[in-house]
Please model this.
Amino acid sequence: MNFEDIVQLDEKYVMRTYRREPVVLVRGEGALVWDIEGRRYIDCVAGIAVNIVGHCHPYVVEAIKKQVEKLIHISNLYYNELQPVLAMELSKRSGMDKFFFCNSGTEAVEASLKLARKKSGKRDIIAARGSFHGRTMGSLSVTSTEKYRKPFEPLIPGVKWVDYNDAEAIRKAIDKDTAAVILEPVQGEGGVNVPSKDYLKEVREICDEKDILLIFDEVQTGFGRIGDWFASLVFDVKPDIMAMAKGMAGGFPMGAIGAVEEVANAFEPGNHASTFGGNPLACAASLATIRAIEDGDLLRKCRENGAYFIERLHEIQSDGIKEVRGLGMLIGVEMKGSCTEIVTKMREKGVLVNCIQERVIRLAPPLVITREQIDEVVEKFASVCP
Model:
């Protein structure tokens, strides 16, 4: 099939829940992808921050090939030889004690909210304005964007909203019914908003003082995206519950929550479940991703190349740029006007980026992106900036 055939089929048979760019991607390697007509792109979307070790990393491909010939799926009614090994490896890198496996970030947030309610015996959740935690009913209830929420109200009650990066607002919002605070350590969809140095530590102290659980949504910041395994390590703040997904399995669908033991033990058989969660194929892909990150020294490269990327973006002389911000390979370029045309122009020049919050270009490439590729992205970005 050609481009037109695929678009026609998609328009006829696929529900319109996405606004698609006019490109059919068929192949990827490292930080590069190619479309059906053979055009090459530097991918700074990376499956929305998913392809952390690049497209089709040899470790991940080989692990999936081997596992798919052996065992793809079994029910969680039985032991899985890879699931506890993965949980152990995650514990070493996250500081969390026990894990529940699922298939996506929004599922991880759902599980986190349920665990918080179960452990605390309370109902209410404090969430931040500018947050994005997912689109299912529970995760949507703690997502602040009005256009996502409005069509599906009434949502789950008991959510209180505070400004991001304002710890005292959280203190004031806590009452006898508060179960937990949920935060993205760095807000992703909200515009790549990086908090002040002490914000998360102050929130941790408040939660300890008030006996409130702290949930970190590390779906986007986890697995090396901002320069360490998790943002909790970057900011030196340990949550009670941590949601993770996106880069977790190198592009294969997977999510999980980790929790400190006292909290994790609140879940009992029947409290929560996931038919496909932690299946052998996903676990094999995740273990291979962890090995790829370590063998490729990608955490260091993320820190150094991310700083280089941000430095190069600061060098652009453009009246249209309001601010460049970010950590590691999660970077936001806020424009003074709409960034929709920039997305189109960059695609035409062979670079994939996306626009969030109408005015922010998000750059979240694979951690394997090279400096030469970064230079190419920056040069093309400079050429299309107003």
